[in-house]
Design a protein that fits this description.
The protein is built from 15 helices and 13 strands. By secondary structure, it is of the alpha/beta class. It has 3 domains: 82 residues; 53 residues, Sun protein, domain 3 (Alpha-Beta Plaits); 202 residues, Vaccinia Virus protein VP39 (Rossmann fold). Strands 5, 6, 7, 8, 9, 10, 11, 12 and 13 form a 9-stranded mixed β-sheet that branches. Strands 2-3-1-4 form a 4-stranded antiparallel β-sheet. Helix 1 crosses helix 4 and helix 8 crosses helix 9.
Length: 393
C-alpha cells in the first residue's frame, strides 16, 4: 500500500472506532483486526503503519472527534507531512478544505477532567495515554521469578511486585513454553500488587465477586497454594467462560465459577453469606486507569454511564459485605482514577456499614481517602484505586 492508501485506511478505521464509541460497539483493537482480516492484501508493514497512525489520532483527541478525518487532520496539524498523503487521488483522501473540523488535542472530555481524584496532579495526566508496558506474573505453583527469568532473558523484574516481570513492547509471550505450561501469566504490575495486598492464604474461602476472565482469580489461587476454595462469580457468561482454559494452563483446581444475574448476586450467593474469609470486588468501572491500553474508551464515558457504574459499584460492595465472616476482609479495586469510583465509594461503604478500614499492604501508590491510588506516572502501573476493610469479630 502507498502512504496515500494508508492514510485513507486510517480515516476509515477511525470512522468505525468513533461510531463504535458512540454506540457501545466493539473495541478499537477488535475493529482493526476485523478490518485487516477483510483486506488481506495489506502487508505486515502496512498494518503496523496504519495501526500506529490510528492510535496516534486516538491518543491525541480528548473529546470524541466528529469524524475520522477530523481526528487525522488533528494529527496533521502537528505533522504537516501527513497532508501530502491527502492528495485527492483515486485511492486517497481529499485535500483539506479551509474551515473543516479538526480535532483538538486533549487528555479527556472536559466534563470528565473535574472528576479526577485530587491526589493525581494535572501534570501526571499525560502519562495516562502513554504506551502500556507488558507485564507478567509468575505463577508460584509452577516456579519462581528466577526460573522465569532464566527462560525469558528479555524480561526484567518489575519495580514493586516480587512475582512480576516486564517484557519489551511487542514481545509474543504466548509463543513461549513458559507461558504455555503456566509458569507466567500476562498481568499488569498494579493488578499483581492488589492481589498480593489481599493476603490470600491456603485453606481460605475466597469470593472473587466480579471475576471476569479470571486474571485476579488465578493470582489469588496461586497465593493460596491451590488449597482452599475460591468462588469466582460474574454476570458475563462469555468472560467467565474464558477462565477455564487459563485455570487448566495454570494447573489450578480450587476455583469454581458461578454465573450470577445482575441485581440478584446476593440471592445467588446466599449459601456463602457470612462465611467468606476474603471477598474481592474488582468492580466494573469507567476504565480511566487503562487508557494506555484502550485510549478510545474515554470517548465512551458519559455522565449517565458514570452514574450507572457508581450505583452498581455501591450495590456490589453491599453484596460483598454480606458475604464476610467475622474477621473476614473485603478488598475493593477499580481501574479508575475518578473520585466517584474510588475514594467516594470507600467513604460511602465506611459510613453505611460496620466494616473497619484497614491499611492496604502495598509498596506502591499514594493515599486517597480510606484507600490508595496507583498511577502510570508515579508507579509505572495501570491506574487503580484500592481499599480494604475487615468485618469486626
Amino acid at each position: 500500500m502507498t502512504p496515500v492508501a494508508r492514510t485513507r485506511a486510517a480515516i476509515e478505521l477511525l470512522d468505525e472506532i468513533i461510531a463504535a464509541a458512540r454506540g457501545g460497539g466493539s473495541a478499537a483493537d477488535t475493529l482493526i483486526a476485523r478490518y485487516f482480516k477483510e483486506r488481506r492484501y495489506a502487508g505486515s508493514h502496512d498494518r503496523r503503519e496504519i495501526r500506529a497512525l490510528v492510535f496516534r489520532a486516538i491518543r491525541r483527541a480528548g473529546e470524541p472527534p466528529v469524524s475520522g478525518r477530523a481526528a487525522l487532520l488533528g494529527v496533521a496539524s502537528e505533522q504537516p507531512e501527513l497532508l501530502e498523503t491527502m492528495d485527492g487521488s483515486p485511492n486517497g483522501a481529499a485535500p483539506p478544505v479551509p474551515g473543516e473540523p479538526v480535532a483538538e488535542a486533549g487528555i479527556a472530555p472536559a466534563w470528565l477532567l473535574g472528576h479526577f481524584d485530587p491526589a493525581i496532579p494535572e501534570e501526571e495526566w499525560p502519562a495516562l495515554l502513554e504506551r502500556a508496558t507488558l507485564d507478567l506474573r509468575v505463577n508460584r505453583l509452577e516456579g519462581t521469578r528466577e526460573d522465569a527469568l532464566a527462560e525469558l532473558p528479555a524480561a526484567v523484574p518489575t519495580r514493586f511486585s516480587p512475582i512480576g516481570l516486564r517484557l519489551p513492547e511487542g514481545f509474543r509471550v504466548e509463543h513461549e513454553d513458559s507461558w504455555r505450561r503456566g509458569l507466567v501469566e500476562i498481568q499488569d504490575e498494579g493488578s499483581q500488587l492488589i492481589c498480593l495486598g489481599c493476603e490470600a492464604a491456603p485453606e481460605m474461602l475466597v469470593v472473587d465477586l466480579c471475576a471476569g476472565a479470571g486474571g485476579k482469580t488465578l493470582a489469588l489461587a496461586a497465593e493460596m497454594a491451590d488449597r482452599g476454595r475460591i468462588v469466582a462469580s460474574d454476570a458475563d457468561r462469555g468472560r467467565l467462560g474464558r477462565m477455564t482454559p487459563r485455570l487448566q494452563r495454570a494447573k489450578i483446581g480450587i476455583v469454581e465459577t458461578r454465573l450470577v444475574n445482575p441485581n440478584k448476586e446476593a440471592a445467588m450467593l446466599a449459601d456463602l453469606a457470612g462465611q467468606a474469609d476474603l471477598v474481592l470486588v474488582d468492580a466494573p468501572c469507567s476504565g480511566t486507569g487503562t487508557w494506555r491500553r484502550n485510549p478510545e474508551t474515554r470517548w465512551r464515558i458519559t455522565p449517565e454511564r458514570l452514574a450507572r457504574l457508581v450505583a452498581l459499584q455501591a450495590h456490589l460492595l453491599d453484596v460483598a459485605a454480606g458475604l464476610l465472616r467475622p474477621g473476614g476482609r473485603l478488598v475493593y479495586a477499580v481501574c479508575s482514577l475518578l473520585t466517584d469510583e474510588g475514594r467516594g465509594q470507600a467513604e460511602g461503604l465506611t459510613a453505611r456499614s460496620a466494616l473497619v478500614p484497614e491499611p492496604m499492604p502495598m509498596p506502591a501508590g499514594r493515599a486517597a481517602g480510606p484507600g490508595m491510588l496507583l498511577s502510570p506516572a508515579r508507579d509505572g502501573t495501570d491506574g487503580f484505586f484500592v481499599a480494604r476493610w475487615q468485618r469486626p469479630c
